[in-house]
Design a protein that fits this description.
Elements: H1 3-16, H2 18-25, H3 39-53, H4 64-75, H5 79-97, H6 105-120
Helix pairs in contact: 1-2, 1-3, 1-5, 3-5, 4-6, 5-6
Pfam families: ELMO_CED12
Protein name: ELMO domain-containing protein
Organism: Amborella trichopoda
Length: about 140
């Protein structure tokens, strides 16, 4: 499973983007549903979604987002951890935009994946900081 790598991702998020991490952990932004997504479980799902989306189980990714991400990763060893932070922040922003509740989690994750795939497919994305959603880590 994704338990250990997801825990490493969460620790990276807390260490390198503490303000953003606390904002998501304590659900400080926006009008929230009574039943929120469980934070750690959401983190595991984000890790799993990234591994699938980037086709990291394969010897060589076949999707454009996966191919582009490998190029980014070759120049930045923290790229996966930072992408995780971006994806988590993106998922939370989508959660708020959709006014989601607990039962909407899979749909929120699906929509977030589509958005992230689009961003990783852009021609002018050569570094993880080039992703438009990177700014979500600094709000």
């Amino acid at each position: 499973g994704c338990g250990v790598i997801s825990l490493e991702n969460l620790l990276f998020f807390a260490q390198y983007y503490p303000t953003s991490f606390r904002r998501l952990l304590f659900k400080l932004d926006g009008k929230r549903a009574t039943w929120e997504y469980p934070f750690a479980v959401a983190g595991i799902n984000v890790t799993f979604m990234l591994i699938q989306m980037l086709d990291l189980y394969s010897a060589k990714p076949k999707s454009l987002p996966g191919i582009n991400f490998l190029k980014i990763l070759s120049a930045d060893e923290d790229a996966f951890d930072v992408l995780y932070c971006i994806a988590f922040a993106m998922m939370d922003a989508q959660w708020l935009a959709m006014r989601a509740s607990y039962m909407d989690f899979n749909e929120v994750l699906r929509v977030s994946r589509i958005q992230l795939e689009r961003e990783l497919s852009l021609e002018d994305v050569h570094r993880i900081r080039d992703l438009p959603a990177h700014n979500l880590l600094y709000r």
